Amino acid sequence: MSITYKDADGIQGMRVACKLASEVLDHLTTHIVPGITTREIDRLASEFMKVQGTKSATLGYQPPGYPAYPASLCTSVNHVVCHGIPNDKPLKKGDIVNVDVTVIKDGWFGDTSRMFLVGEVSIVAKRLCALTFEAMWHGIVHVKPGVRLGDIGFAIQKFAEGNGFSVVREFCGHGIGQTFHEEPQVLHYGKPGTLEELKPGMTFTIEPMINAGRREIKEFGNDGWTIVTKDHSLSAQWEHTVLVTGSGYEVLTLSAGSPPPPPFVNA
Ligand code: MF3
Ligand code: CO
Ligand code: CO
């Protein structure tokens, strides 16, 4: 499969699906407190998707070489980097959790994730979540026709490493549209002026995974999905789906509850 460029109808379809994905996260926000289990978060999301008339893209998702993913979203707690499977362990004060939601509406996919702080968290955990959010936005603000994917990866890497954190290399953002994961791959590290040139109508995710310690990861247990940091350090991730417009970018996964962009955006 190659890169798909969305026409006006496709863009409208993406806007709708992406906003709905973000609204799932809005709905979950007040529930993510000490004592809730990630399985309950998954159930709340799945009920809400029924009300929305969306379907989870992750439930039953089975790329080559993977078992079918068993839940309506991913919940990655503390040193879990990504693809954490909801379970019955209650969240406790001080945890940080990424909730990653992908919904399908009228055939279009919207993909977004946020970090949630469970009660009071440590200073380093707070800083990691805040800087990872900023790292994502350092990538987003570069999106416009003529820019290359390497410029985006470089901006994210420079910011994250400049703040003493590391960037996970094995997972990346991705084109998205009428399929979940399509070309191009959107690396969160790289060299300016390299890789694919952005063109209007492209839609892709930017979803950096940033570790407080070393960048290396490993598979956890035998569920076939869960990825953790090798050194057990904390990991954070934020994700937006963006559209390349004629003159810049449009963030598609925004809704009433989205945290506002950091001050350097539009400054
Ligand atoms: N939503 C994830 C992404 O951003 C993919 C999750 S696949 C799953 O690409 F099967 F683990 F849910
Ligand atoms: Co996602
Ligand atoms: Co994604």
Give a structural overview.
The protein is an alpha+beta fold and 267 residues long. It has a single domain (8-266), classed as Creatinase/methionine aminopeptidase superfamily (Creatine Amidinohydrolase), CATH 3.90.230.10. 26% of the residues lie in helices and 24% in strands. Strands 1, 2, 4 and 5 form a 4-stranded antiparallel beta sheet that branches. A hairpin with a 4-residue loop joins β14 and β15 (249-251). It is globular, with a radius of gyration of 17 Å. It starts with 7 loop residues before the first helix and ends in a 16-residue tail after the last strand. The mean pLDDT is 98. One cobalt (II) ion binds at residues 111, 174, 205, 207, 239.
